[in-house]
Write a structure and sequence with these properties.
Blueprint lengths: L3 H23 L12 E2 L5 H9 L1 H11 L3 E10 L10 E8 L6 E7 L5 E7 L8 E7 L2 E7 L7 E8 L2 E8 L7
Parallel strand pairs: 1-2
Antiparallel strand pairs: 2-3, 3-4, 4-7, 5-6, 5-8, 8-9
Helix pairs in contact: 2-3
Length: about 180
């Protein structure tokens, strides 16, 4: 039998722990001062503009994950392809370096609950200098980097396993071709 005093101490501990867990769960991963100011590429399409307007935190967090060099969003592609951006199961974010060196970064954001098999690959235009990230992730695959964004092909896959995919996207032109 637990005493009343022990019960109160236990109750206060549970309440304090619950409050702390709740605060940590709702705290942003990075403060506004740590997040870069993200700009839209002049080539950004309508889906990218919609996602950037409706979910600026996701755009900023993905840029932060790429690193401080990457603050220009080239694309925010809702996946599966053709999906209303508001109903997407994943988002492929691509960023261009602000250093003028032609480098690019990609993140594949999981917009569903739980761990999913995710595969993200980007290469330069001739299919060389590839960077890949794959595995089971709750939040995202990547970042993956490419030394030259011009027409860089990107492959993004998401599913319950590598043999049970509900997204199998490949594009030669997720980055600008100029």
């Amino acid at each position: 039998m637990v005493s009343i005093k022990a019960s109160k101490v236990l109750l206060h501990s549970v309440v304090a722990t619950s409050a702390l867990v709740g605060a940590l769960a709702t705290a942003p991963h990075a403060t506004a001062t740590e997040r870069p100011a993200v700009t839209l590429s002049a080539d950004a399409d309508a889906d990218t503009r919609l996602i950037a307007a409706e979910d600026p935190a996701a755009v900023s967090v993905a840029a932060t994950t790429c690193g401080s060099e990457f603050n220009e969003v080239s694309a925010a592609k809702p996946l599966p392809e053709g999906t209303d951006p508001r109903l997407r199961r994943a988002t492929l974010f691509t960023y261009i370096s602000n250093k003028g060196n032609g480098r690019g970064c990609a993140i594949l954001d999981n917009n569903t609950e739980g761990k999913k098999y995710m595969y993200l690959n980007v290469c330069d235009i001739d299919g060389k200098n590839c960077d890949t990230d794959s595995g089971y992730f709750t939040d995202y695959a990547g970042p993956v980097y490419v030394p030259s964004v011009a027409c860089a092909p990107v492959t993004a896959k998401v599913g319950n396993s590598s043999s049970s995919l509900y997204i199998n996207y490949k594009s030669r032109y997720i980055f600008p071709c100029n």
